[in-house]
Amino acid sequence: MSLDQLRDQLPDYAKDIRLNLGSLANETILSDQQKWGTYLASALASRNAPVIQAINAEVADKLSPDAIQGAKAAAAIMGMNNIYYRFTHMVSEKTYGTLPAKLRMQIIANPGVDKVDFELWSLAVSAINGCGMCIDSHDAVVRKGGMTTEQVQAAVRIASNVHAAAAILDGEAALAG
Question: Closest by alpha carbon to 120, among 27, 54, 2?
Answer without folding.
Answer: 27
